[in-house]
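Q: Hi! Curious about what CheR-type methyltransferase domain-containing protein looks like structurally. Here's the sequence.
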Amino acid sequence: MDALAIEDVGQYRQYLDAHPQEWQVLDGFLPITISRFWRDRRVFELLEHRFLPELARRAREEGAAALALWSLGCGAGEEPYTFSILWRERLQSRFPGLGLTILASDIEAHQLARAEQACYPASALKDLPRPLKGAAFERRDALYCLKHEYRRAVELERRDIRGEFPARRFHLIACRHLAFTYFNRELQCDIARRLHRALHPGGLLVLGNKEALPEEVPGFEPSHGQVRVYRRREGEDTEYP
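A: Let's find out. The predicted structure is below.
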């Protein structure tokens, strides 16, 4: 509004009506880019001790070469790299022969560039358990840079969650502090249905702690009473319009 010399919101709404291209400019201001490693400690504790081992056992029984994860709204890579560190340091040895692939997508090109560099201030690592921090990072001046072996499993991709989804399925999808916080109900329902299709039967959808799936979207069931983890129901392959 300052750049356009517009004084109040009502005038800006009129400007949007008259200049449809301004919606793209406005949209560019809206993404929230704050994140950190091991965000929401209880979630990652449950992933370590319960959910990822369950998924890994199933994937191996079904003959999968790798456990497939998708981190939506990955920011500068904090969440997908947390998955990679957790798997490599605490779970991989329990599942020999099973690999890990992580698709990390975000709408912001500059965030993906930061993820490619994988160097972070100390504040981004403040929640990460010290042994994991010591194993996975090396100090470079004021920054902590992720070692290459923890980056190999992560594929970075620019993608808008409101657009097309990948043409593959995942064992776990993390969609935290994104669609089910900032989008309207209609768009939430659409995304929830497409997330259902993107999961293997029995796969898990992880939301932010204050988020919930729309009640009108079937095919999911809560997997824990305290954190927002939903399981795609077994034996269901719901076809949505």
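A: A fun detail: The chain has two domains: 1-30, 33-232.
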